[in-house]
């Protein structure tokens, strides 16, 4: 009997180092950030796995048998990432969906040339019902001058409020039936699956590409009553109701990372349009939209806020929200064209405010 020889096993650590060697001037800082994030992801994954046991082991906000307070999982995820990243000497500031203001690097640690922005636990309301959740991150080079770790050499809000096209790395972790770490440094998108028995992320999805058109439409259409007419028209198009294209299949988990990940593999669009009640949509530009937009473009897809490329939007606030249409290039282009035509005709469609930097806080 002939056995298939196993294909080569590549850990995320090795892959990151090999990628780094392609850049003559790389200092290793970005690689270090990615390795630290992979470690944080493993710690969060192991906690998420046990989330269903909270009732027997003690729910969040209660005391466990050791007399320790149980933390809410999204705060645990935030703390885990912060603690994994604060002392590496590679960051000068962080920002998290869970924290209102810029997070400085503690005084005792060296500061570096990057900033990190993250959504520690995306889809956290799904934890209680055992549905996939995720982590999203974005790395940008600081723009303020660094005077080589002298005291007070902290990053500023200016370093954090940069358009998404300035990202040097972004990625997400999906804690699903298996845990996956997917990232880009602008050299394609690569996915790693956690082998829990050895505690390593192994390369499972090299050079991921999203199909030009896809079959999945992900949108919460309970908001239909609050959508402007062009958004409704777009959804009719995606559903094949105007006879101009084949109907897509609707899939909506309610965890952006999980919805996005499925569509990245199968093709299609995730949409969170503006609506009358949320004039900028719900999703955060810096912690959710931009990092996934960078991944999506690197995989051959597109991401817009309505009429404009998301990565070109200049943020004005840390917790700024933005409408989001992201996925297969051809399908996102349908949205862009439709909104563009509506804008030409002067029809308000609720999208036109996002790119001017309007925001509503958390
Ligand atoms: P978070 O848990 O980080 O606050 O994000 C929740 C988000 C996102 O994951 C998801 O796509 C969206 O909320 C769902 O919102 P609706 O319930 O309004 O559809
Ligand atoms: Mn989120
Ligand atoms: Mn979150």
Structure at a glance:
The protein has 362 residues and is of the alpha+beta class.
What features would you describe in this structure?
This protein has 362 residues and is an alpha+beta fold. The protein has 2 domains: 12-205, Fructose-1,6-Bisphosphatase, Chain A, domain 1; 216-355, D-Maltodextrin-Binding Protein, domain 2, CATH 3.40.190.80. It is 28% helix and 20% strand. Helix 1 runs antiparallel to helix 2 (29-49), helix 2 packs antiparallel against helix 4 (73-85) and helix 6 runs antiparallel to helix 9 (329-344). The protein is globular and about 60 Å long. Mean pLDDT is 91; it is low at 353-362. It binds 2,5-anhydro-1,6-di-O-phosphono-D-glucitol and manganese (II) ion (MN) (2 copies). 2,5-anhydro-1,6-di-O-phosphono-D-glucitol binds next to strand 3. Residues 97, 119, 122-125, 220, 254-256, 282 line the site of 2,5-anhydro-1,6-di-O-phosphono-D-glucitol (AHG).
- CATH topology description of the largest domain: Fructose-1,6-Bisphosphatase, Chain A, domain 1
Biggest sheet layout? 8 strands, mixed
SS-based structural class?
alpha+beta
> In angstroms, what is the radius of gyration?
21 Å
Cα distance spanning the termini: 61 Å
User: How many strands in all?
Assistant: 13
Task: Note the beta-strand portion.
Answer: 15-25%
- Number of domain units: 2
Bound molecules: 2,5-anhydro-1,6-di-O-phosphono-D-glucitol, manganese (II) ion
Count of alpha and pi helical runs: 9
- Spans of at least 5 consecutive residues whose pLDDT stays below 50 are 353-362
Q: State the CATH class of the largest domain.
A: Alpha Beta
The helical percent reads 25-40%
CATH superfamily of the largest domain: Fructose-1,6-Bisphosphatase, subunit A, domain 1
What form results from the Cα inertia axes?
A: globular
